[in-house]
Design goal:
This protein is an alpha/beta fold and about 100 residues long. It has 3 helices and 3 strands; from the N terminus they run E-H-E-H-E-H.
């Protein structure tokens, strides 16, 4: 299984809880990708799609997309345009111990 963690505006792969979640998922033998999107400069749906296109070969039916803030909206836009089959998971909260 692989995971993508998609950050939001003014964030980066090193921000918020992203490093913690990446480490937790990798410790369970998952591949985790946290792309760096342009923000706040050159921020547009098109520029984010260009960044994500280099990872598109990794997206499959076993991929989990996790979005924070604007990242969630980006995921919805990506899924609307993508021609890949996906499984929908319900929204959930992960608590740190």
């Amino acid at each position: 299984m692989n995971f993508f963690i998609i950050h939001g505006i003014y964030a980066s792969p090193e921000a918020n809880w992203f490093p913690w979640l990446k480490k937790e998922l990798e410790s369970r033998s998952n591949e985790v990708i946290v792309p760096k999107f342009p923000t706040p400069f050159d921020q547009s749906l098109e520029s984010w799609m260009r960044v994500f296109s280099s990872y598109e070969s990794k997206v499959n039916e076993e991929t989990v997309l996790v979005g924070h803030s604007l990242g969630a909206a980006f995921i919805l836009n990506y899924l609307e345009k993508a021609s890949k089959k996906i499984r929908l998971l319900p929204h959930c909260h992960i608590r740190r111990s």
